[in-house]
């Protein structure tokens, strides 16, 4: 903003004084004029100090059937939100009002959710939110092959805002962070690149990409999943680049296949000897990349005083609210330790669970340690233990979910683990069936799909969509 | 739609007692997440009326705050939109709105500059769902000059309303405003359809004659000259002009059929979105037959009650048969029964509020609230 005012004033000064003598301008002003005059349209040039690029194209395949038809950033979280609400709200709360959202995998839900950005106040005359899908070019057409490649393909979008800094974000973390503080850190260090990092326990550091810094927080070395970590500062996948540095690196590495920030751009900048700094973030930050961590971070919201507190006035999280009506808890219902979304009706029992909006839990049904997303119906006398049930699922009456012993999933033991039952969106579960642990179900299933009315632990039943 | 809308939201009602100290009736919170004006605005929007004027006068601060953006009801458009008319002084006029007809007369430009042939006039304090297109079809079929939407009141005293009698064809033959003793339970719901040119003509005439009330000076005065027909409200209708009816309207939403009708059947009722987190039930809470809105945190016991947005209920509290308006903090060990607790109240711990002898007690407590 300061720059716009500066340029406007400067432009007026030019008009008045250019006839008299160039000596009236300072060196800095002449430099600015030479730089900006070609870009001046009308009275001023569109200028944003920092714009954000939000990478939301990933599938998040470790979320299994939850991301069969939606991109991971569009998966529901915490009763009424979607994962992308967190970085988007962080942007607007940090004063970043220009956000490009890069989509690729199953973008429908994401597109309808974001729209023109009204819920986040990102409907702006200049800037605001733009959805940036891959597109056909006159000479070639390609998908986004990597994180940096996706940004490279949108160079023109960024140039249009003439930024000084570009913030690169992922769409798959739950956290509240003031990017402006990080930008101040970037400026104070005259950095070329700043990485957001978070201290993790030393014993877990070998699961992350860690950075080794000097005492001024300048990064000396990177280690990707080191066996013997020498530092516990893990990279959060959030970067601030000074615009010329980013542009140069992207153009230089444009032919790199599957060009990625972590694998190519940052190492390139490091080799070139550019100033890379680690900004240390000390707050709640959760990767919801696996079903286990997704379930866990939802459950953390229902603690008496949650570590990640949504009830604070400061730093609100915004989302598109489809439903406004209050929730109804019936006379015979029991609700004990739960968060429940708008318009939900509870006639049964809910213990230790996160329930989305517009859900119906019928009489006699018991939901324990589970996540039930929007518009799902749980039939009478159905008992659900430790399950993740996606949106718009119909569960019949008299079912039992999450029974028996924990058996590793036969098809994808790495994904469907943690003793969870996972049910994909728009699924139908017939009445009176029993479903074991570490199972996954997706699609309209019928009684005949369950031998002896049972889906044993570790089995997978997928009738539509991708595995 | 071939009509523009006028919402009469300027009124005050002494029967709302302390509740009206804070806001106009049209801004009264309803059913957890709504305000009464949301119903008429949503009905207009859902009936594809694109241009709507809201006349405000009495204590409009809260109402104006609610209407600060027209986008919630889909009125934020280039064609039409939401117009808010509060009394202003002009070189010709320095009066407040002296009545509903005067309010229209003072803003006659709105009617004159529109091109739609019909006008839907509705009060801002009704709770109902109605497709005004159906009323307009009826109006045209009957070749009526005015159509008044009517409702049957069973529980309420009809003498609070305009009591109506019709002939077999549906034409109004008797219309008495707030009679001493009502002879019929058929009352006006405060929703009228009229041709725009006729309305302009009658409003101008009344203004000349210094007559300012729409019902008394236009409808009742002209009922034998003009053809005024009654259209029976097909479904739920409630009007919140007294503490009792306000309490009862809220409690109606505890019934499944009322809830399903308003919340699950198409079309939706819209309201301002406040981005509050989902309601949270901590261990030890017990909630029975109650409505709970977003942003609430519940630790105690709640029964047969309506909790509006952002209510905090402390440990060991008991709340029964009560309406707790938005942003109320209730300290530990508090007992509340048969009450309406005013919004932004802070209720001290270890206190007791009971509405006795079937009366509903209004609780207004402005205690210091410490940072939570």
Could you walk me through the main structural features you see in this protein, from its secondary elements to its overall organization?
Chain A has 467 residues and is an alpha/beta fold. In chain A, 20% of the residues lie in helices and 26% in strands. In chain A, helix 4 (108-114) links the parallel strand 4 (98-102) and strand 5. Chain B is an alpha/beta fold and 372 residues long. Chain B is 21% helix and 28% strand. Chain B is built from nine helices and 28 strands. Chain B has helices at 36-46, 61-66, 100-106, 108-112, 132-141, 196-208, 214-220, 243-252, 256-264; strands spanning 3-8, 29-30, 34-35, 51-55, 81-85, 118-123, 126-128, 146-152, 162-166, 172-177, 186-195, 228-232, 237-239, 279-281, 286-288, 290-292, 297-298, 301-303, 306-307, 312-313, 318-320, 323-324, 329-330, 335-337, 339-341, 346-347, 352-354, 361-363. In chain B, the strands form seven sheets. Chain B has a seven-stranded mixed β-sheet with strand order 5-4-1-6-11-8-12, with helices on both faces. In chain B, helix 3 (100-106) crosses helix 6 (196-208). The longest helix of chain B is centred in the middle third of the chain and has 13 residues, at 196-208. The interface between A and B is large, with 38 and 39 residues.
Order of strands across the biggest sheet of chain B?
5-4-1-6-11-8-12
- What characteristic shape of chain B results from the CA principal axes? globular
Distance between the termini of chain A: 48 Å
Q: How much helix, percentage-wise, in residues of chain B?
A: 10-25%
Helical residue percent band of chain A: 10-25%
By CATH reckoning, the class of the largest domain in chain B would read: Alpha Beta
Low-confidence stretches of chain B: none
What name is given to the CATH topology of the largest domain in chain B? Spore Coat Polysaccharide Biosynthesis Protein SpsA, Chain A
